[in-house]
Records
---
Amino acid sequence: MSLTLDEIQNFKGKYPKQIWSLFFSEMWERFCFYGMRGMLVFFMISQLNFHEKEANLQYGATQAFVYAFTFVGGLFADKILGFRKSLFWGGLLMIVGSLILATDPHKFFFLGIAFTVVGTGFFKPNISSMVGQLYKPNDSRADAGFSLFYAGINLGALLGGYLCIAIGKGELFADYIPEELRWHLAFGFAAIVMVISLINFVFTQKSLGSIGLQPGHPDNEVKSAPIPKWQEYGVYFLSLIFVPIIMTMVAKTEYTDYFMWIIGPLTLIYLFYEMTKVTPAERKKLWAALVFILFSIIFWGIYEQSGGSLSIFAAKNLNKDLLGLDPNGVNNSGGAFFIIFLAPLLGLLWIWLNKRKIEPNTIIKFGLGFIFLGLGYYILFATRLFANLQGITSLNFFTIALLVITLGELCLSPIGLSIMTKLSTKNLQGMMMGMWFLASAYGQYVAGIIGAGLATAKEDSTNYDALITYTDGYKQLGLYAVIAGVVLILISPYVKKLMQDVK
Ligand code: GLN
C-alpha cells in the first residue's frame, strides 16, 4: 500500500525517513556534477591547450548555463513532467554526458558538457522541491531537513570534487590505470555514480506516495486532466535540441553575456504573468520569494569569489601553516568539509530554538547569512596583518574566514531552498526553485566580474601589492555583505507581511 501525503507529512521525530533516500540521490548527483566541474578548467588547459583566461571564461559560461537551465527544468516539471520524471530524465542526460566524455573527452568535450548542463537543469531543482513536499507548509522542522539535505549535497561535492580530478591527473590509482585511460575513467566514474543516484531514486519512489507524480496522474493530490503523451515526448525532444545550442554557446563565451541579459528579464516577465493567475494572498508570497531570490544574487556574487579570485589568492598569498595542507585544496574543499559537520548541527539548533519559541524567522536567518558572510570577508581582509614582506600570510587565519563564510552559507542556502517550497503555489514549485538557482547563475556571473576587477588591478605588481589589492577588495565586499544583511533585517517587517502565515 502506498503512503498518503498526510501519512508522509505527519511523520514523528525530527526528519521524515524519505529524506535519507533523497539525500543519497542528491549526494551522488552532486558527486557527478562537482566531479566534472572540478576537472573542467584543468582539463581544458592541460589537455585541450586552452589559455588560462579562455578556460576560465568557458568554465564561467558552463556554470551560468547550468544554473540558468534549472529554470527550464523546473518549469517543465510543473507543467508537463512532474518532479520524478524530470529528475529521471535529467539523470539520464547527465549519464549520457558523462559517458560521452568518458568515450573521448578530447574530441567530444563540449558535447558531453552540454548534455550535463541540460541534465542538471532537469535534476537539480526538482529533487529539492520533493524534499519540500515531505513537509506540511508550516512544519517548523523543514529548515532542519533542508540543512541535512545540504550536508548530502556537500558530501557529494567534496568526494566528487576530490576523487575525479585526482584520478584524471594520476594522483590516485595511478598504478592500476594506464596513463592514456585516466581522463576517460575519471569522466566514466561520474557516469557510474549518477547511475547509482538513479537506481537509488527508483527505490525511493515507492515511499514517496503522490509526491512528484506527473500533473494529471490519477493519484496526484491536485486533480487535473492527464498530460497528452506527445507533450511529454515533446519536452524530451526539445531538451535534446537544446544540447547543440548550449554546446555552441558555451564554446563561444561572448554569447553568455547576451544570454544572461536576456534570460533574467524573460523569466521575470513570465513570473509576473503567472502572478496574474493566482490569488492576491498567493501573489504576495511570490513577491516575498522574489525578494529572497534577488538578495541571494548579492550573496552568491560575493561568496563565489572562492572559485575565482580567492583561488588565485590562495595560490599566491597563503602559506601552509594548517597541517601542511595545500592552500588551494583548503580553499576548494574546506567549505564543503565544514558544512558536512555543521549543517546537521545547525538544523538541530533550529529545532531546539523553535521548541523554546526563539527560532529566528527566514528573513532574519538570511540577514544573519549576510552578516556572517561579511564578517568572513573582513577576516579575509585581516589576513594581511599576518603577512610577511613577500606578501605571504596565514592559511590558518584564512580557514577561520572560510568557517565563518560557511556559517553564512548555512543560514541562507538551505533556508532558501526551504522557503521557496513554502512560498510557491503548488503548481509553481519547480519554476520558483528554478528561479532560486537562476539567481545563483547571476551570482556566479557577478562574481566573475568582481574577480576580474580585482585581478586586473593587480597586474605588474609585487606579491605584496597583490595581497593589499585583494584584501582591500575583500574589505569592500565584506562591507557590502553587512549592508545587505542590515537592509534585510530592516525591511523584515514588510517582507513578513508579504509572507503572511509562512515563517
Ligand atoms: N553548493 C550548493 C549546491 O551545489 C548551492 C549551489 C548554489 O545555489 N549556488 O547545491
---
Amino acid sequence: MIPKRHVRIVSLVAIVLASTVIPMQGCGSSDSGKKPKFVAIGTGGVTGVYYPTGGAIARLINKKRDVYGINMSVESTGGSLFNINAVMTGDLQFGIAQSDRQYQAFNGIAEWKAAGPQRDLRAVCSLYTEMVTLVAADDSGIQTLSDLSGKRVNIGNAGSGTRGNALAVIEAAGLDREKDVRTEGLKADESASMLQDGRIDAFFYTVGHPNGSIKEATAGLRRSVHFVSITGMEELIERSPYYMKAAIPIELYPKASNKENVPTIGMATTLVTSAAVADEVVYAVTKELFENLESFRKTHPALEGLTKEFALEGLSAPIHPGAVKYYREVGLMK
Ligand code: GLU
C-alpha cells in the first residue's frame, strides 16, 4: 500500500506538471525555443540524502537559467522505485535511484517483472555509495539479523529502494519475511520517531551517510539505539551484480551504541533519466554537475568522495547521449 502522504506528493507533482506539459514536450525536440524548459527531479524523503542531493543539482542548473533556459524543480518522493517509474511515464525527467533498482528496471526483474524491461531508462551518472542500514533499539534484543524473528521492523514504503534490500537481507539471513518478521511498510521519514516511541523495534533504510533520519534515531531521546551488522551476505553479493561490501563509519553517529564501524552491503546511488528527455537537457545537467564538482561535493558529506571516474561506475542502463557527449568532451569516454 502506498501511504497517503506519498499519494499527496504524487498528485502535487501531477498538478505542477499539468501546467507545464507544453514546454516539457518541447524538451523532447531539438528546438530549444525561448520558453523555459521545465524539468523535475525525483528524490526521496526530506530527511534522506537524495533530497538534498537533488536540491544541489537543481540549484546548479537553475543558476544557469540564462544559458540553458532550464527550470528544475525538486520533488520529495517515495524513493528509487517511484522515481524510476515516474521517469518512465514522463511525470519526472530525472530521478535519483539505487543502482540495484536501475539494473532491475532496465532488465525487467524484481518489481518490473510484470511490466517488463524498461528499455527507455537511461543512466546519467553515479553519485555516491549508499548502504543497507539496520537500526535497532538497544532494549529490543536485536543483536544479529536472526534476532529480527518476531520483531516489528519497518522495511520501507512500496516506492522505496529500501524495501527490496530489507527483504533480500531478511531472506539471506534465513528468515521467512512473512512468517518470521512483523514488517511495517512506512516511509523512512517516520522510522526515527516510531522507534523512539516504541512502536517498532528496528528499521531498515538504504541510504548514504550521514543523514538526518539516522541522526534523529540515534539521538536516543527515549531509547538508545545501535546499528546491526549485515554480514553473511556473500552468496547474495555473488548473485547480485550491484551489491558490494561496505561499512557505516561510526564516527558519523557518535550517539549510537556501537563502538566500531558497522559492516553491511551497499550499492551506488545513481542519477537516471529517460531516452525521451532531450540531449541538450541531459548534457546541461551532466556538465553543470561535473564542472562544479568541487562545490557540489560540499553540499552534503555523502558526496565528498565523488569523482568523475566514480560517475561511470555502477551504471547498468545505457548512458544517455547527452551525458555521453559531456563525458567525451572531458575524455572520460571514447
Ligand atoms: N535509497 C532510498 C530509496 O530509494 C532513498 C534514500 C534517500 O532518500 O537518501 O528508497
